[in-house]
């Protein structure tokens, strides 16, 4: 599962200029949160942490009909932190302990039909691929790129499903006690 640094993303969004929390949420959701929008509470708790760590500062406070609205600005330390984060490569996830692999082995160990598990998973992958392909076709370039990323991962999973199906008999001999 990919994990996005919400704090670094919000800091990066602040580099274009000071913003209120609700503006940050809207910008985040528009650019990165199509499938998982941020909750307002998450924005404000993240901003509070960034403020405490000296990565942002309050650029202004506006009184309104409701609670005070703080406008946040990134600090030099925040800019340096974003730059360091952007320059640090993400650790590739090798998926050496995948839940799917565990299910296949457990099915074999408990004398269940592992081929059914693989078939069911293949159908689910194909269903999601159809949804992503449709979204990609209708989307803008940003949506096309994120869908391509997901589709490539799903294609790799499908290759693994096919390979595992072909080797299921041999795997059963290795994992089942003689």
Q: For the record, what CATH class of the largest domain applies?
A: Mainly Alpha
Outline the biggest β-sheet: 3 strands, antiparallel
CATH superfamily assignment of the largest domain? Winged helix-like DNA-binding domain superfamily/Winged helix DNA-binding domain
What is the name of the CATH topology of the largest domain?
A: Arc Repressor Mutant, subunit A
Domains (count): 2
Strand content: 5-15%
Runs in which pLDDT lies below 50 for 5 or more consecutive residues are none
Spatially, the strands of the biggest sheet line up as 1-3-2
Termini separation comes to: 36 Å
* Number of H/I helices: 8
Helical amount: 55-70%
Question: Structural class per helix/strand content?
Answer: mainly alpha
**Judging from the principal axes of the Cα atoms, what is the shape?**
elongated
Find the count of extended strands (DSSP E, 2+ residues): 3
- The CATH level-2 architecture of the largest domain is identified as Orthogonal Bundle
- Roughly how many Å is the radius of gyration? 23 Å
What is the average per-residue confidence, as pLDDT, rounded to a whole number?
A: 89
Protein name: PadR family transcriptional regulator
Pfam families: PadR
Organism: Streptomyces alboflavus
Description of the structure:
- Residues 10-80 form the Transcription regulator PadR N-terminal domain.
- This is PadR family transcriptional regulator.
- This protein is mainly alpha-helical and 178 residues long.
- It has two domains: 6-87, Arc Repressor Mutant, subunit A, CATH 1.10.10; 99-175.
- It is built from eight helices and three strands; from the N terminus they run αβααββααααα.
- The protein has helices at residues 6-14, 21-31, 40-52, 76-87, 99-109, 114-138, 141-166, 168-175, and strands at 19-20, 56-62, 69-74.
- The chain has a three-stranded antiparallel beta sheet with strand order 1-3-2.
- Strand 2 (56-62) and strand 3 form a beta hairpin.
- The protein is elongated.
């Amino acid at each position: 599962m990919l994990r996005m640094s919400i704090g670094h993303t919000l800091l990066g969004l602040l580099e274009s200029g000071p913003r209120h929390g609700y503006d940050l949420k809207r910008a985040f959701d528009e650019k990165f949160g199509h499938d998982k929008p941020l909750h307002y509470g998450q924005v404000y708790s993240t901003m509070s942490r960034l403020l405490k760590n000296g990565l942002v500062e309050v650029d202004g406070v506006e009184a309104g009909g409701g609670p005070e609205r703080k406008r946040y600005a990134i600090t030099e330390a925040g800019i340096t932190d974003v730059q360091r984060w952007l320059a640090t490569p993400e650790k590739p996830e090798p998926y050496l302990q995948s839940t799917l692999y565990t299910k296949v082995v457990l099915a074999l160990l408990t004398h269940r039909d592992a081929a059914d598990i693989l078939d069911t998973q293949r159908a689910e992958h194909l269903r999601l691929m159809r949804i992503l392909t449709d979204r990609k076709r209708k989307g803008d370039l940003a949506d096309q790129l994120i869908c391509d990323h997901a589709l490539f991962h799903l294609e790799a999973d499908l290759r693994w499903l096919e390979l595992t199906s072909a080797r299921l008999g041999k795997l059963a001999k290795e994992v089942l006690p003689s």
